[in-house]
Amino acid sequence: PGKRDHFGIKAEWVEPFKLVPIIDIEIDGEIRTMAAQYMCEKLGVQSQKDKEKLQEAHDVCYKLGFDKGTMSYGPFKGTPVKKAKFAFRDQMVGDKQAFVYSEPEKKVVSRSGDECVVAAIDQWYLKYGEDSWKGAIVDHMQGKDFRTYNSRIKESFEDAVSWLKEWACSRSFGLGTQVPWDEKFVIESLSDSTIYMAYYTVCHFLQDKALNGKE
């Protein structure tokens, strides 16, 4: 009540309204219908000044909510959150209730000290989330030939495969290897090194065991 009075909030503005659960999330081995409340109570959050505890609660709810959460309310009840997110977006855009825009997750500063903004430009992507690609990786990870020797490493692989959808792999200027099918672009440097490392694992099948590329 004291905090309410401090900010000029009347009791009738908040007291009649109960929290509405909309996402079921498995945390600590049980399905939580009120994940944020559960995490705040678990961590002993007392006020908005408990910044570290609130950040931990936020991170757990957002990560598990997206990766493993299921909608428990609304038109997409029973749908995994990672699918419902895009269905909601399409519905709202189609109903003229929203429009799509992009922004950085946080402030981005270039090496030259300039603040970066999002620009709509032509770009090539590797579609790691495509069913045929992703399915092959998942099948391999679940097979007997995939050994990580450590459960945490396997969880890291599974986590990366679950969230990785599209990876921007080209840029319009700078040094680098040209994109073979669209030479006005060069392969983005991180993708370049990643692609080469992946290619080296199978190139002996494609180059008649000639690793120097002469075949």
Give the structure's gist in a few sentences:
With 215 residues, this protein is mainly α.
Give the radius of gyration: 24 Å
**Strand coverage percent:** 5-15%
**Poorly predicted residue ranges:** none
Beta strand count: 7
What order do the helices and strands follow?
Answer: HHEEHHEHEHHEEEHH
Please tell me what the overall shape is. extended
Q: Termini separation (Å)?
A: 77 Å
The largest sheet, given as strand count, sense and whether it forms a barrel, is: 3 strands, antiparallel
Q: Structural class of the secondary elements? A: mainly alpha
- The total of helices stands at 9
Query: How would you state the average pLDDT, rounded?
Result: 87
Helix content: 40-55%
Order the strands across the largest sheet as they lie in space.
2-1-3
